[in-house]
Amino acid sequence: MSELIKRSLGQLKCQAVGHDISLEDEELLYIKPDRKITTKCSICGRPVVAEMNETDEDEYFVTELR
């Protein structure tokens, strides 16, 4: 499958269920003092920001960079 098709299918999936980050990036959230990292979605490769929820360390938010 070509990379273009994989990325397009990944973007459709992310539109339906949201972006995701790798386990390595998720572990970085616990290390970084500001609990925020800029990375790429592990599904579609789009640039995203992952930020830990201040009230619940078991939850984080992933938003697409525009």
Q: What's the layout of helices and strands?
A:
Blueprint: H1 3-17, H2 23-31, E1 36-40, E2 47-52, E3 60-64
Antiparallel strand pairs: 1-2, 2-3
Structure report:
- The protein is α+β, with helices and mostly antiparallel strands and 66 residues long.
- It has one domain (3-64).
- The protein is built from two helices and three strands, in the order H-H-E-E-E.
- The chain has a three-stranded antiparallel sheet, with helices on one face.
- The radius of gyration is 13 Å and the shape is elongated.
- It starts with a helix and ends with a strand.
Which regions have little confidence, pLDDT < 50, spanning 5+ residues? none
Please provide the count of β strands.
3
Number of domains: 1
Helix content: 25-40%
H/E topology pattern: HHEEE
Q: Which radius of gyration do the C-alpha atoms yield?
A: 13 Å
Number of helices, counting only DSSP H or I runs of 4 residues or more: 2
Question: Terminal Cα separation, in Å?
Answer: 27 Å
Strand content: 15-25%
- Which structural class best describes the helix and strand composition? alpha+beta
With strands numbered from the N-terminus, the spatial order across the biggest sheet is 1-2-3
Please tell me the overall pLDDT. 87
Shape: elongated
